[in-house]
Amino acid sequence: MTTIREVAKLAGVAPITVSRVINHTGYIRDETRQKVESAVNQLGYVPNSLSQSLRWKQTGMLALVLTDVTNPFWTTVARGAEDAASAAGYHLILCNTDESPEKQESYLKALFQKRVDGILLVPARADLKDIRQARKLRVPLVVLDRRLTESLADCVRCDSEAGAYQLTRLLLERGHRNIALLTGSPQVTTATDRVSGYRKALREAGLNTNREIVFYGAFTLESGLEMARQVLEMKPRPTAIFAANNFIALAVLQALRVANVRVPDDISVVGFDDLPASLQVDPVLTVVAQPAYQMGVLATNMLLKKLTGETDPSDAYQEVVLPVEIVERKSVQVTRIA
Global pTM? Predict the structure, then answer.
């Protein structure tokens, strides 16, 4: 039996384009439509009646459930997701959980009831209950930016552990031995993965566990300010601060300015996630940069493949781990190794 993938290959288009032509959804150029229809006729492709009937019941709506829509990182992820969804003829609903499992559960319950076609989820915590519920209801779902402790869904994330390892090594190579890491909740895998990378770099440098300085909080400005104040009260004060996301980094810089502590002269600061030009500060931070837009696009395309039948339901769940990049700037001072 001819498959939609074979039609797409002959027509020189993506399977989702074939699906849109067959189901008369979204805008398709006449030239493209003719190529698809010609391939359908040439191969004798007959759409699966059950799949087609299900397709007509779809809403044309996807949902992106993320943790903080005010964060530029998530704004960029959302733009990538929206662009990919729009190109396929879908609309995207945005839901903000503020890292609250209760808000996440409430949103997902509403989305299940409204029967959106698929969900892109940034889990607020490591708890897999909501993902299990989506599987039970057969709602297509893709996870973003979180490492799943069980293989329950497709996932697109960046390599947080490797990024933290590389950034900590950079500080070690500049002579820093008292490095404070300010991270998110221990219930969020990106927070713990960044701690793991930091610890790995310290171990390789021959530093034992009593040299670790880790503060857990949340990936927010408010939490970042509180953790930065605690660092400033330490004696001796760390020579470097590693902020595990961009909002914590902004909070650290604010706290240091108030305390008249200069960067990098008095203390070095590095961060995870780059900032848009409008939020850049002096000195511009050395950071781990993540491909946020690409993450949104890849996760959405992965979800769309589920909806068009391009991905076989029996296939194993995929985990796509995107590489990160160290962007070195002027916020790190070379110091004497102690």
Answer: 0.82
